[in-house]
Write a structure and sequence with these properties.
The protein has about 280 residues and is mainly alpha-helical. It has nine helices and two strands; from the N terminus they run αααααααααββ. The C terminus is likely disordered.
Amino acid sequence: MVKALAFALTIGSGGSVGREGPIVQIGSALASSIGQWVKMPENRLRTLVACGAAGGISATFNAPITGVFFGVEIILREFSVDALFTVMLSAMIADVTAIPFLGDKPFLSGFPAGIMLHNPRDYLLVAVLAVLAALMGLTFKSVLYKVEDLCDALWRNRPEWARPAALGTGYGLLLLALPQMYGVGYPVIFKTTAGSYATWFLIVLAFGKILATSLSIGIGGSGSIFARRCSSASPPEWPTAASSITCSAPAPGSRRCTRWSPWARCSLRPPGRRWPRSPAWWR
């Protein structure tokens, strides 16, 4: 519940982050809590956590197939008939449950009609686009880490609750220059596909989005880059079940997770040291 509220406040106040990460965390945490409550074995608990993540993605975006692939490939990271069927069942039931409340239309329904590739040679441009997207992804990861480290260095041991208010000034100045960076950004995507922006401005928006999202997370925002920070007010040790997230006792220094999975542990990062950057899908 706290994660959902923090995420809503971040997006509502203009944070340039997505909602996929919090949805996955909320669904996985709920599934993990239920599994531990009924004393479920570890191997079944992992599958249940994947079901929670798949259900969250499926219900929110009306995309059960996406939920299945996300739960199996990202959370479980293994393919088995038993786990695949269970995750599929969770995604389908979640989607059917959400339709009466959210409707049955596609989530991204603002794209112009008739978008297609008319010439087979256009697929070469798709290949070029894939390479550029991969390079932009690597750039985003590097910028994110550097911005987070810079924010940590600037804030140091001051109270974390005041960090968004103090460091958010830089993000506010960025929004003055590029108001398109406000919030999740789906309207900007729709205008882009409709040809409303010049090519040079699209390049500016791409790098602006990288910087805006990095600042949103660096100042303490809660949103989707599949990122998670340990709370500086966390208890000395959370339950050590297979699917819990545990953090060390509060102490001065930057707190980072080597990765995020339902079984990851968070601990203090030694001064001047970096955590391993792999796997990079959740920090």
